[in-house]
Protein: glucan 1,3-beta-glucosidase
Organism: Suillus luteus UH-Slu-Lm8-n1
Amino acid sequence: MSSRPDSFAEVSLATPDTPLNSNHPLWISTSETATTSTPCDSELIHTSCNSSPLLPSQHPDLYGEEIKSSPHSKKGATYVRPVLLFFSAVLVAVAVVVPVYFVVVKHQHHTSESDITSSSGPSSTGSHASPTYGADGSTVTTSDGSTFTYNNPFGGYWIDDHDDPFNDGARPNSWTPPLNESWVWGTNKINGVNIGGLFVLEPFISPALFERYPGAIDEWSLSTLMAADTANGGLNQIEEHYKTFITEQDIAEIAGAGLNWIRLPIPFWAIEKWDFEPFLDQVCWPYILRVLQWARKYGLRVNLDLHTIPGSQNGFNHSGKYGQINFLNGVMGVANAQRALGYIRIIAEFISQPEWRNVVPVFGIMNEARVAVIGMDQMTSFYLQAHDMIRNITGYGEGNGPYIAIHDGFQGLSSWAGFLEGSDRIVLDSHPYFAFSGGSNSAPIATGTGLGAGGIWPTLACSRWATAMNVSQTAFGVTIAGEFSNGFNDCGLYLNGVENAQDVAPSCSLFLDSSQWNDTMKAGLQQFALASMDALQDWFFWTWKIGPSSNNTIASPLWSYQLGLQQGWMPTDPRVATGTCAALGVIAQQFDGVYQPYQTGGPGAGTINPVSVSSYGQYPPTSIGGLAAGATQSFLPTYTSTSAIPTLPPPTFTPSPPSSVVIGNGWFDSSDTSLAVTEVAGCTYPDAWNAISAPMPTALCPPAATASASVVVTSAPAVTASF
């Protein structure tokens, strides 16, 4: 465990991975390439091939799956003279085996996926096999025996290895580093997409689930109604959603679309829930691991986003429960924040393990906290506390744990300039949407083709967002758009909530059914998308997939990247967005790509400005909102750190990898032995999700308690796994 460094000299910098040679061809194909062996079959190679390289065109898959060569591949001619055949074989060996050897031997004792298993989660079968590789046109056989063709015209390739399931050698395209090479902020660009609605259910993403249960408006109410419906499977219906909504083919298609990151929202009940909460707890965790392993297989980096917080951080339906904000607000605000810090800690411990560092370089610790309600000072105090807690686990400096992403709280990027100067690798995440701006948004988007397409919307995206994003790269540090969409208006079934009919009003009818869209409409949407991408630079579209409603239509098509690809209004190559704003005449202030060293984990990382520490270092904050006038904050309910810590288990693999493969135990820092928070025995607590109007305690409980809540983690015995 590390403490925040007091000077630049104390910053611990991990030795960076030696970059692989990126100048070699991305793929070697030859008519003489063997059809059943892999580079690992060579006597030269004595590793588990944990890296990306020059790849042959056909191999048995590492998860008992098989890749088949393209039907157009040529067979070697039978009339070739023996001497020519010999020299051909030598040339192939030099061109394929030797480069593969020098790239592949970079081993990182890993464990992978396509087939992770758990007692209640996804499983697979198979036998040990050599690693399987595949590029454009390869055939992938999934764990259930189904097959699909991997379409990737951008030089990307996948790697699947039963004997080294943490193989980080895959890459999604030629311009993105493989997972085991460094991502360079300011040089490499995020072209990403959210996997929304998979583990945190949203009505507009999975409308059929909510249509089935009238009265369900969020995951809380949906879970309550489902649990009572045992005849139709009860809460098991949610697990069925986990199993089927996103498949391996979806992740492969994301890589094939020229994208290189995914943002994966997850709920805190992946870890646990408390008895008064209705959620299906822990069941989604094996499926989260499955997605992470698929991302690894196809070379996609992951921004893992904690989307829900106990008590709700924003009152939105995707926070777990629609309504009140009970995080650092109201009578249970401090207690809920204690739980939140505990869950952030548990996730940070898991993804900081060497098996997961390359796949999850960014951890979003709280989605869309409503700063206007909670308070900027209060959120800053919490973020400083979370930063120090995470860096005490990971250590300081580049390579030590993930970047920490925080949302701008709908305050505008400029409000965060100079935030916690000297902190170690904090990312500012903004979610620019026109749909929720409060304007009429009635200006047409189907106005023509070419640069004239999209009406006012492309130019508006450039002028509103480009300069602000570029300025923030200097004023704050690494700044990304964690969400944006083609939703220039707020039309879409349940987009504004189940009980809001505005989003399906007659004026929205055109935008609820993409089968009505003509080429001009599609051209306008694509131009809007390109302008948004160019303005935002590092972005994640919200979202990859919208599920069908009960009448089998996609009723929020503006929000589906996948549907846009299929029907022609999303670019098949996101790189074509570059220069769109300039072509529209919008000249934005540019960022030169150079961050201050501390912002990317260099010298000074973790040496936070003493003024900030003095102003925000006290935790809990000296005051919180949502309390009755005259309330004594020291009497607020708090929890005690006396419960066993619920750790996140690693995946299990079928077949098991060799004993030399380190899978990890879900806990990176063995010196972090503090216990988890729980209710104090004998004390009565208000409803943690509905405590804004609860009576304020007039005395401490228990009477001997300290006058202010303590930090979530306090000294205690060792960690124990909960599932």
